Amino acid sequence: MDAMRLCALWLPGLTLIRPGAGTGPGDPAVPACSNFSFKSCEECLKNVSCLWCNAKNTCMDYPVRSILPSSSLCPLYDAQWGVCWMNFEAFIIAIAVIAGLILLSIAVCCCYCCYCRRRSRGIPNEEEESLARDREERRMQSFQRKHERKMKQDEIRKKYGLLQDSDHPYSRFENE
């Protein structure tokens, strides 16, 4: 039953994509839409190029040149096209909600993918870990060489009496 309803909704849309396809007023075997006026909605909408107006109880050709029928022709809340159980206004709202949900889901997927990509960058891989270990090793070697140079310089200063006594930094001034 639901498949029948979906087909009834999508089949009229196919005539908008391919004008002239299917049955229409140009086909001599199909009677004009105005012949179904003052009859039932179901009889009118058997032809996908027809629009049923509940307010006027008339069947008319769908205005293909404009996407939506004008309110002078038939108000949207009274117009039916494709199926009799849903008016044109509800059809437009349903399509807008579906399009909005699709756009929202695409936006959520994009944000989620960007978040996952950023999060995966926070976890270092093996190559980054080895680079970090090498960097730390070089830093430690540099610190060790710096310490050795300082020790040699202190020995030279001590040898020539230039090393200040760390206990009395102002002892030189007392002797003068």
Automatic annotation (TrEMBL):
GO biological process, one term: protein import into nucleus
Keyword Transmembrane among record annotations: yes
Protein transport is among the record's keywords: no
Region (Disordered): 127-176
Transmembrane segments: 90-115
Signal peptide coordinates: 1-22
InterPro entries in the cross-refs: PTTG1IP
GO CC terms, sorted: cytoplasm; nucleus
Residue spans of biased composition, Basic and acidic residues class: 130-140, 165-176
Entry keyword set: Membrane, Signal, Transmembrane, Transmembrane helix
PANTHER family to which the protein is assigned, alphabetical: PROTEIN CBG20567, PSI DOMAIN-CONTAINING PROTEIN
Protein name as annotated: GTP binding protein 10
Native source species: Gopherus evgoodei
